[in-house]
């Protein structure tokens, strides 16, 4: 075997092995909590982190749901706070108790292109969006006199990646005391509606200690400036810790200029 032929074969093996190893690295597709003592939360942040939120699905599909629900918040009009939540899944694949799997070939076709690219390299999903799968939703809360939060409505993605409004009745249909968002699709979008308590195949509830502010390094690592759009309550650049676009001169120094930037158009 010539040296050129051996080198070409080695490069081909490396080209196949590197993406496979990258995809199989333990823990690489779910964010790791930041070590160290957390900062003392503000009163409204403490209320957000105490407010239980549940994430579930009516269909079984691949992907492990992360241990932490990250959030960003924005206070607009008095007595209201908009909270964008980010739920992390280890992967987005069609296999599970759903029609794609039952019929086999559609699920295999999706896996060959969308997820894995011929079962080896990263597929369309990873190339377009990044590792893992991140789903976002945002909830508009009313702040009660005692500091507790009362969910008004929410916005999340449907299975067609279109934003849908979830009314208070939708959020509390599974359990009156804990807002629940859930998916009806293998791809984890959390804009499901119409389910009853017994319809969910899994539900994970987050509370104090498992609901945390979104760190800029996780936002950058998972490219949240272009993913999980329904969760966005601050400008995309602000998610990554970058300065937001400058405010007009007539707003500088005002109360609006005390936060990240002007009120984003996507806020609830």
Description:
This protein is an alpha+beta fold and 268 residues long. The radius of gyration is 21 Å and the shape is globular. Strands 6-5-4-3-2-9 form a six-stranded mixed beta sheet. It is 26% helix and 22% strand. The protein is built from nine helices and nine strands. The termini are far apart. Mean pLDDT is 75; it is low at 6-27 and 244-268.
Supply the key terms.
six-stranded mixed beta sheet; 268 residues; alpha+beta; disordered C terminus; three-stranded mixed beta sheet
Gross morphology is globular
Helix content: 25-40%
Q: What is the rounded Rg? A: 21 Å
Order of helices and strands: HHEEEHHHHEEEHEEEHH
**Helix count from the secondary structure assignment:** 9
Q: Identify the strand order in the major beta sheet.
A: 6-5-4-3-2-9
Largest sheet: 6 strands, mixed
Structural class: alpha+beta
- Tally the beta strands: 9
Spans where pLDDT lies below 50 across 5 or more residues: 6-27, 244-268
End-to-end distance, in Å?
65 Å
Strand content: 15-25%
| Average residue-wise pLDDT | 75
Task: Chart the SSEs and their pairings.
Layout: H1 3-24, H2 43-50, E1 53-57, E2 69-74, E3 80-89, H3 99-102, H4 105-115, H5 117-120, H6 124-129, E4 133-143, E5 149-157, E6 163-167, H7 168-171, E7 180-183, E8 202-206, E9 211-213, H8 216-221, H9 236-239
Parallel strand pairs: 1-7, 2-9
Antiparallel strand pairs: 1-8, 2-3, 3-4, 4-5, 5-6
